[in-house]
C-alpha cells in the first residue's frame, strides 16, 4: 500500500503552515511521527484524522513547540508563514509562534484556570506576550465574546470558569484563540468533550470565524463526520504516518487508501442506514503495522 497524495493547491500562495518530512520520537526510543509532510494555505481548514494514537495531536504539539519533555523532533522542518521555526532559538521561536498561532484545546474544563476570571485569561496573552495595551485587549476580548454569541460579555469577563457551562467555556476558548488575530489555529478535537447539539454549534462557529478572518486551521479529529463538515482538505494518519492527503470531497468520493475506505465505512453517516457499521478490519491494521515496522527496519538499516 503506497502513500496517496492527490495534487493539492500546487499553484497557490505561500502556505501559512508547511511541515516537511517531520519525524518525532520518544527520546532514545520508538518513532511517533514518520516523515509527515503537509501544508495549510491561508483560509484553509485541513483535518488531521485517524484513530487514537495515530499522532494527530503530536503534529499540533510539534508545530506549536509544546511537545512533552520525553519526546523530540528528530528531523524535518516546520515553516510558519515561510519562516523556518527550527532555525530560531527557543525564546524567539516561542514569540514567533505566540504571535502567529493559537490552540483551541480539547477539554474546556481543564483548559481554563479555575481560580482566575475569564477576562484576564483572554487578555493576558495579548498584553503580556504580544504588547497590546490593556484597553485594546479588553475591547478585543469583548468584541470576540460577542462574536461567539456570549450574552452580556462584560459580566462573563468578570466570571470564573465554574460559573459557566461547558459549551460557553468552549466558546470562550475559541474567542481567546481568535483574539490575537492568528494566521494559524490548531484545533485539537475541540468538540469531543461536548454533547452533539453543542458540537454542531461549535463547529459552525469555528468555521464562520476562520472564514471571516482567513485563518488557516489544522483541525484534529477522529471523526470522519466532522472532517466532512469542517474541512476542505484532509490528511489521514495511521501510526504516525500519512496514509492519504487530499481535498476532502475527493477523499469521500474516491478514497485511495484502504485505511481511508475503512475509516469512512466505520462512520455512521457515511454508510447506508440498513447496512451494519464495519469497524476497521483488524487484518488491515495488522498489515499496516507490519508494513510500517518493515519500513522502519529498512530505514534504520540505511542510517
Ligand atoms: N507524553 C507522552 N509520552 C509518551 N508517549 C506519548 C505521549 N503522548 C503521546 N504519546 C504517544 O504518541 C503517539 C501519538 O499520540 P497522539 O496523542 O498524537 O495521538 P492522537 O492521534 O492524537 O490520538 P488521541 O485521539 O488518542 O489523542 C501514541 O502512540 C501515544 O501513545
From TrEMBL:
<keyword id="KW-0067">ATP-binding</keyword>
<dbReference type="Pfam" id="PF08352">
    <property type="entry name" value="oligo_HPY"/>
</dbReference>
<protein>
    <submittedName>
        <fullName>ABC transporter ATP-binding protein</fullName>
    </submittedName>
</protein>
<dbReference type="InterPro" id="IPR003593">
    <property type="entry name" value="AAA+_ATPase"/>
</dbReference>
<dbReference type="InterPro" id="IPR050388">
    <property type="entry name" value="ABC_Ni/Peptide_Import"/>
</dbReference>
<dbReference type="InterPro" id="IPR017871">
    <property type="entry name" value="ABC_transporter-like_CS"/>
</dbReference>
<dbReference type="GO" id="GO:0016887">
    <property type="term" value="F:ATP hydrolysis activity"/>
</dbReference>
<dbReference type="GO" id="GO:0005524">
    <property type="term" value="F:ATP binding"/>
</dbReference>
<dbReference type="InterPro" id="IPR003439">
    <property type="entry name" value="ABC_transporter-like_ATP-bd"/>
</dbReference>
<dbReference type="GO" id="GO:0015833">
    <property type="term" value="P:peptide transport"/>
</dbReference>
<dbReference type="InterPro" id="IPR013563">
    <property type="entry name" value="Oligopep_ABC_C"/>
</dbReference>
<feature type="domain" description="ABC transporter">
    <location>
        <begin position="17"/>
        <end position="264"/>
    </location>
</feature>
<keyword id="KW-0472">Membrane</keyword>
<comment type="similarity">
    <text>Belongs to the ABC transporter superfamily.</text>
</comment>
<keyword id="KW-0547">Nucleotide-binding</keyword>
<dbReference type="InterPro" id="IPR027417">
    <property type="entry name" value="P-loop_NTPase"/>
</dbReference>
<keyword id="KW-0997">Cell inner membrane</keyword>
<keyword id="KW-0813">Transport</keyword>
<dbReference type="Pfam" id="PF00005">
    <property type="entry name" value="ABC_tran"/>
</dbReference>
<keyword id="KW-1278">Translocase</keyword>
<dbReference type="GO" id="GO:0005886">
    <property type="term" value="C:plasma membrane"/>
</dbReference>
<keyword id="KW-1003">Cell membrane</keyword>
Amino acid at each position: 500500500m503506497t502513500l496517496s497524495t492527490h495534487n493539492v493547491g500546487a499553484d497557490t500562495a505561500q502556505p501559512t503552515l508547511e511541515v516537511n518530512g517531520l519525524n518525532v520520537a520518544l527520546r532514545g526510543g520508538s518513532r511517533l511521527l514518520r516523515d509527515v509532510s503537509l501544508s495549510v494555505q491561508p483560509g484553509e481548514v485541513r483535518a488531521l484524522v485517524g484513530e487514537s494514537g495515530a499522532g494527530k495531536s503530536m503534529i499540533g504539539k510539534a508545530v506549536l513547540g509544546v511537545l512533552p519533555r520525553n519526546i523530540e523532533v528528530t528531523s524535518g522542518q516546520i515553516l510558519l508563514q515561510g519562516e523556518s521555526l527550527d532555525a530560531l532559538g527557543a525564546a524567539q521561536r516561542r514569540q514567533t509562534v505566540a504571535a502567529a498561532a493559537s490552540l483551541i484545546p480539547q477539554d474546556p474544563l481543564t483548559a481554563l484556570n479555575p481560580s482566575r476570571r475569564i477576562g484576564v485569561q483572554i487578555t493576558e496573552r495579548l498584553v503580556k506576550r504580544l504588547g497590546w495595551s490593556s484597553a485594546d485587549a479588553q475591547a478585543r476580548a469583548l468584541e470576540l465574546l460577542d462574536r461567539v454569541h456570549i450574552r452580556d460579555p462584560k459580566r462573563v469577563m468578570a466570571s470564573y470558569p465554574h460559573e459557566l457551562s461547558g459549551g460557553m467555556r468552549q466558546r470562550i476558548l475559541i474567542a481567546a484563540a481568535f483574539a490575537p488575530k492568528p494566521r494559524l489555529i490548531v484545533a485539537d478535537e475541540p468538540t469531543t468533550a461536548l454533547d452533539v447539539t453543542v458540537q454542531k454549534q461549535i463547529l459552525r462557529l469555528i468555521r464562520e470565524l476562520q472564514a471571516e478572518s482567513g485563518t488557516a486551521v489544522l483541525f484534529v479529529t477522529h471523526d470522519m463526520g466532522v472532517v466532512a463538515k469542517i474541512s476542505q482538505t484532509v490528511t489521514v494518519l495511521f501510526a504516525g504516518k500519512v496514509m492519504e492527503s487530499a481535498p476532502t470531497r475527493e477523499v469521500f468520493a474516491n478514497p485511495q487508501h484502504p485505511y481511508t475506505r475503512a475509516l469512512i465505512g466505520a462512520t455512521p453517516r457515511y454508510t447506508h442506514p440498513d447496512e451494519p457499521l464495519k469497524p476497521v478490519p483488524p487484518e488491515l491494521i495488522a498489515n499496516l503495522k507490519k508494513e510500517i515496522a518493515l519500513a522502519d527496519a529498512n530505514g534504520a538499516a540505511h542510517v
